[in-house]
Structures are given as structure tokens and as C-alpha cells.
UniProtKB/TrEMBL annotation:
SUPFAM superfamilies associated with the record: Acetyl-CoA synthetase-like (SSF56801)
Protein name per Swiss-Prot or TrEMBL: Benzoate-CoA ligase
Swiss-Prot/TrEMBL keywords: Ligase
InterPro entries xrefs: AMP-bd_C, AMP-bd_C_sf, AMP-dep_synth/lig_dom, Benz_CoA_lig
Domain AMP-dependent synthetase/ligase: 16-372
GO MF, any single term: CoA-ligase activity
NCBIfam families attached to this UniProt entry: benz_CoA_lig
Species, as recorded: Bradyrhizobium macuxiense
Chain ranges of the AMP-binding enzyme C-terminal domain: 422-499
Taxonomic classification: Bacteria, Pseudomonadati, Pseudomonadota, Alphaproteobacteria, Hyphomicrobiales
């Protein structure tokens, strides 16, 4: 049996009569399903002309414009493996990943060329650089290359279980690892979370703050809308609260996907007080980190629309545990997405009872095949039917799951597990605290106790603030978990995807 993801995601829409419908609008250009079909066929021909063969990798360091789906889907159509990279990385990180995946061609947005100037000559496997933009700066210009090609192309007869694209996991510790995702995996996320949780439909207009190079953004802006012939608004710039409100009012999305810090910032943004979230918005989704309960409630009361918190990962491609419309409990990650199974296990690997914390394992139709060239790390994460997430969770008697932190961030105080996340969540419910990060620190006896780094809201420092914060945490979550030390900082170390890097604070 052959299966190519692009036949299902794209050609099917044209066959069903949606060829003239706008698939993507990047605020400068629009592209219809029919035009996208032709452009992706041209990409296929161009890759063949440049000598790229099936299974070889091409890297993409591209902003969210209509060129992103053209290149990504064009490569997959040809059986060539696109590797979209986080556009916010440093030159050294780009050099590492481009070398690791042995990309034959690099597709790059013109604005990102300067960072890559010294990297490009150092890559032995790289043969061509193709620039998306107006000026190729001595390389090849995507528009010119595509204009030369025919829009007739035979889609590669790929296998549903062959690698179709790779995504590098951001790796809060160690080097990023290339996760090999299969041809059938995009459809697997659409058939599960897309159709059964979001219930995405043809008349939806999607807007995602997360970019297409993230697994989260790829599902939000490409897989789910294309799975039903809907439309997507792409944004190539930084998703500030003001810009998000502007896009919402201009394009009237029906689904808005964000992350907790953005939802909180949008609620707090002085300049946007009184702003509206468009007139057609029906649902919001949040992922990347746990959505604080208070943010969910405030958003709902301010805009009248719920936020569905759900957890996904690069390894599993999209969300596998989520709240659902009509079944929301803020402060939890909800229940398994239909099509996914989850387990919570102890360190010994036994299932833990409800109410006890365990590591979350997932059986997923969209799990990656493994990490490229990382046999031992692959064995540790992809264990037969089950994928280990490295997250600690607890299940309540109603079957809902609550996040307790990363397995590697948990620590014991007086023999009892403390989840930094729980202490942080308690801290940020205090009106003086904007953000918090908690790590273990040894007391004079050498015993671990929680230490908190806090970012304060403007002009909220008061005389007895630290004592008040300690008391606040004790009241909220119990006497032994309060931070024995508190330090005020201007900001917290975070990954490019906005996750707090507690290991950096532990090194202090
Ligand atoms: C954490 C969450 C609590 C968790 C992602 C949606 O974030 C995504 O992928 P990454 O590989 O990170 C995965 C890790 O992030 N996390 C994500 N969402 C939540 N923790 N509540 C949440 N709602 O530690 C997880 O293991 O960057 C999110 C879809 C696709 C994704 N790749």
C-alpha cells in the first residue's frame, strides 16, 4: 500500500472542489488550494532537477509565509524529507542541526540569511541554498526556481510508515534530537485531536501564535485546517498581544491557538484593555506548558470563549491529553484524546493508583519512529507501543489528569515529592508575582528545600513581601512545600519555546 500525506491533505481538497478556496493568507500573499497543488508539484520537479533523491533531507529555516507550506508539502510530495528548524536558533545551533541532518538543500527566508552567512560554507553535505524573498544574495531565488518548472509531477509512491519529515526536539538539556515522523502521522493527529477535540470544520479560520516549525504550530496552522479544507492566517513576526488582537479583528479567526504566557500577556496588556477577540471566535487552544487555572477563568469571563489546555510533544507530534469543549476543568490537562492511551507509572514501571503521581506514558498513532542517530536515547523514549514523556502527572477519580512537573525537575523534601510546578503555580496566584521558578537548594544541613526565583509585577515590592509569599504558599498547598529562600529576578531563563530552564537556575 502506498500513501503520501500530500495526496490526503492537499490533492483531496482540489478533487472535492475546493481548488479555488484560500488555504493560507500570510497578510501579504494568499494561496488557494489549487495554486498550492501546482506550486508543490513545481517544488517536486525542482528538487529532482537539483539532484535531491527520495529520503534525502532538505532543511527549512523559514518564517511563516505561504512559501512554508509550498516547500514543506512539495518536499513530502516528492518523498524528500523536509526538516523545519526553529528560526530563533543561534548560528552554532543551526550549524549543529544542519550538519546532523545532512541537508542537501537549505530553504531559507531572506531575513534569516545574515545569521547563516558563516555557517553555510562549513556544511559538507549542503549543495544548494534557496532563498524565499526578493533578493537571493548570490544563492537561488525560490520564486525564480519555481517559475522554471512544470506543474506536472507524479507524487512519490511513499509508504504510510516511512519517514516523511523530521522535527528537532528543543531539548532543555543536551543537543537537540531529530525526531523522524512518518507519512501517516499528520493524518493521525487530524483524525484524533483535530476532528474529535477541536472538531475543526471547513468554514473555520485558524490563527496560531505558535509557528509552523513547532509541532504544535504545524498541526494548528497546516494539518488541522487542511484536513477539512479550512483557511489559515499566517503571521511571520513576533506574536505580541497587540498584534494578536489586531489579527483577530482583521481576520476574524474561529480558532485561536496560543500558549499560557501569551494568553496571560493578552489579558494583562494595558494597551489592549477593551480589545476584542474578533466576532467569530469559537474556541481557543493552549499548549507548551500548563495553563494556570486563573488564566483560563479570566479569559473565559473576558472574551466568552474557553481555552482548551492540552499537552503534546515533538516526539508524539501533537496533543494527546486535553480538555474538550463542554468538558473543561481549568488547572488540569483533561483526558486522553480519543485514539491515544495513557498510563501513569512508578519508577519501577508499575501502574500507580489514582491520586498518586507517576510518569506519563502514551500509546500514540502519531509517535515518531525514533531519534536520528541516537539509538540509546531512542530506546529510552520510544519503548515499543509506549512513548515516555518525562512528565509527572496525577489522575483524579473522574479520570482527569493534572500536570505535576517534569520528571527531572521533581525533588524530595523530607521524603515527600515536591513538584516545582505546584509551588510556582501557588506563587503566581499572589498578586505581586508575575512569574516564578522553583528549584531545590541544600540547606545548612545539606537537605533539599525549595528555593524560588520570582519576577514581580511593576511596583509591587512591599516590606514584608517574602514572608507574605511564604505564608501564601503554605496556605495554598501545605506547610512543607513553601520556598525557604526567595530571590527577585528581572526575568527567568527560558527555551525558545518559552519553557522555564530550571536546570540553569539549579546550577547557581
Ligand atoms: C510540556 C506541557 C503541561 C511537557 C507541543 C502541543 O510543547 C510541545 O512540544 P515540546 O516538544 O514540549 C513537550 C513538553 O512540553 N508541555 C506541553 N504542553 C503542556 N506541560 N501542560 C501542557 N498543556 O513537559 C511536554 O513533555 O516543545 C505541544 C503540540 C505539539 C507539541 N510539540
Amino acid at each position: 500500500m502506498t500513501y503520501n500525506a500530500v495526496s490526503w491533505l492537499l490533492d483531496r481538497n482540489v478533487d472535492e472542489g475546493r481548488g479555488g478556496k484560500v488555504a493560507f493568507d500570510d497578510t501579504v500573499s494568499q494561496i488557494t488550494y489549487g495554486e498550492l497543488q501546482q506550486q508543490t508539484r513545481r517544488v517536486g520537479n525542482m528538487l529532482r532537477r537539483l539532484g535531491v533523491r527520495r529520503e534525502e533531507r532538505v532543511a527549512m529555516i523559514m518564517l511563516d509565509t505561504v512559501d512554508f507550506p509550498i516547500v514543506f508539502l512539495g518536499a513530502i510530495r516528492a518523498g524528500v524529507v523536509p526538516v523545519p528548524l526553529n528560526t530563533l536558533l543561534t548560528a552554532e545551533q543551526f550549524a549543529y542541526i544542519l550538519g546532523d541532518c545532512r541537508a542537501r538543500v537549505l530553504f531559507v527566508s531572506e531575513a534569516l540569511l545574515p545569521v547563516l552567512k558563516d555557517v553555510i560554507p562549513r556544511l559538507p553535505d549542503l549543495e544548494h541554498v534557496v532563498v524565499s524573498g526578493k533578493d537571493a544574495h548570490g544563492h537561488k531565488l525560490l520564486a525564480d526556481e519555481l517559475a522554471r518548472e512544470s506543474d506536472k509531477f507524479t507524487t512519490a509512491p511513499t509508504h504510510p510508515e516511512e519517514p516523511a519529515f523530521w522535527l528537532y526536539s528543543s531539548g532543555s538539556t543536551g543537543m537537540p534530537k531529530g525526531v523522524r515522523h512518518l507519512q501517516a502521522s499528520l493524518q493521525a493527529t487530524a483524525d484524533t485531536y483535530g476532528k474529535q477535540v477541536l472538531a475543526v470544520r471547513e468554514d473555520d479560520v485558524c490563527l496560531s501564535a505558535a509557528k509552523l516549525f513547532f509541532a504544535y504550530g504545524l498541526g494548528n496552522s497546516l494539518t488541522f485546517p487542511m484536513s477539512v479544507g479550512a483557511s489559515t492566517v499566517l503571521n511571520s513576526t513576533r506574536p505580541t498581544p497587540a498584534l494578536m488582537f489586531e489579527l483577530m479583528n482583521t481576520y476574524n479567526p474561529t480558532i485561536f491557538y496560543g500558549a499560557p504566557t501569551l494568553f496571560a500577556a493578552m489579558l494583562n496588556d494595558e494597551a489592549s484593555k477593551g480589545a476584542r477577540a474578533g466576532t467569530r471566535l469559537r474556541i481557543c487552544a493552549s499548549a507548551g506548558e500548563a495553563l494556570p487555572e486563573s488564566v483560563g477563568h479570566s479569559w473565559k469571563s473576558r472574551f466568552g470563549v474557553d481555552i482548551l489546555d492540552g499537552i503534546g510533544s515533538t516526539e508524539l507530534l501533537h496533543i494527546f491529553l486535553s480538555n474538550a469543549p463542554g468538558d473543561i476543568k481549568y488547572g488540569t490537562s483533561g483526558r486522553p484524546v480519543p485514539g491515544y492511551k495513557v498510563r501513569l507509572v512508578s519508577d519501577a514501571g508499575d501502574d500507580v493508583p489514582d491520586g498518586e503521581v507517576g510518569e506519563l506514558l502514551v500509546e500514540a498513532p502519531s509517535a515518531g519512529e525514533g531519534y536520528w542517530n541516537q539509538r540509546s536515547k531512542s530506546k529510552n523514549t520510544f519503548q515499543g507501543h509506549w512513548t515516555r514523556t518525562g512528565d509527572k502527572y496525577v489522575r483524579d477519580e473522574e479520570g482527569r489528569y493534572t500536570f505535576c512537573g517534569r520528571a527531572d525537575d521533581m525533588f524530595k523534601v523530607s521524603g515527600i515529592w515536591v513538584s516545582p510546578f505546584e509551588v510556582e503555580s501557588a506563587l503566581i496566584t499572589h498578586p505581586a508575582v508575575l512569574e516564578a521558578a522553583v528549584v531545590p537548594e541544600a540547606d545548612p544541613e545539606g537537605l533539599l528545600k525549595p528555593k524560588a526565583y520570582v519576577v514581580l509585577r511593576a511596583s509591587s515590592a512591599t516590606d514584608n513581601l517574602f514572608e507574605a509569599l511564604k505564608e501564601h504558599v503554605k496556605q495554598k498547598i501545605g506547610p512543607w512545600k513553601y520556598p525557604r529562600w526567595i530571590e527577585v529576578v528581572d526575568d527567568l531563563p527560558k527555551t525558545a519555546t518559552g519553557k522555564i530552564q530550571r536546570f540553569k537556575l539549579r546550577e547557581h
